[in-house]
Design goal:
Layout (H helix, E strand, L loop, with lengths): L2 H16 L4 H47 L3 H7 L3 H6 L6 H11 L1 H5 L6 H5 L7 H18 L1
Helix pairs in contact: 1-2, 5-8
Length: 148
């Protein structure tokens, strides 16, 4: 129970012991305090659950929009091409940020593969520096935040 509840209940007991109030009034005040405290707790719990539900719904909506806007995401994730990026970053990337880092490393490959010659396609891209990866992640997060 809360400090307010405990202090108010202690006050009721003091008044009862000193004779200022009778047992009936003390019981009524005690029951009222208990009911109010329980109601406050129930409201707080319901509010937290509601906020959690809204956050989950928002996250799901963002994910659905991302998948709609980036139809090649599932294919890239399932192909294993994102795994090296995730491993190189030491846990800094999840699938979504690794996707944006991959897209930053291979802009032409995914957007317009017809522009690449076979020789260009066979050359490995230069790996991104840590600052380039961080910049790519920040840009991706800003893009998702703006779309929200």
């Amino acid at each position: 129970m809360t400090e307010d509840y405990q202090s108010e209940l202690s006050e009721v007991y003091k008044e009862l012991e000193s004779g200022e109030i009778g047992i009936e009034e003390a019981m009524q005040r005690s029951n009222t305090l208990t009911t109010e405290t329980a109601s406050k707790k129930a409201i707080e719990q319901a509010t937290k659950q509601f906020q959690t539900t809204l956050q989950e719904r928002d996250a799901e909506a963002i994910q659905k929009k991302f998948l709609k806007d980036n139809p090649d995401f599932a294919e890239l994730r399932d192909s294993g091409k994102l795994e090296p990026i995730k491993q190189e970053s030491g846990g800094m990337h999840d699938d979504f940020s690794a996707y944006f880092a991959y897209k930053a490393e291979h802009p032409m490959e995914e957007e317009n593969p017809a522009l690449e010659t076979p020789e260009e396609a066979s050359k490995p891209g230069a790996p991104l520096s840590q600052s380039e990866m961080e910049e790519s992640m920040l840009k991706a997060m800003e893009k998702v935040g703006k779309e929200r």
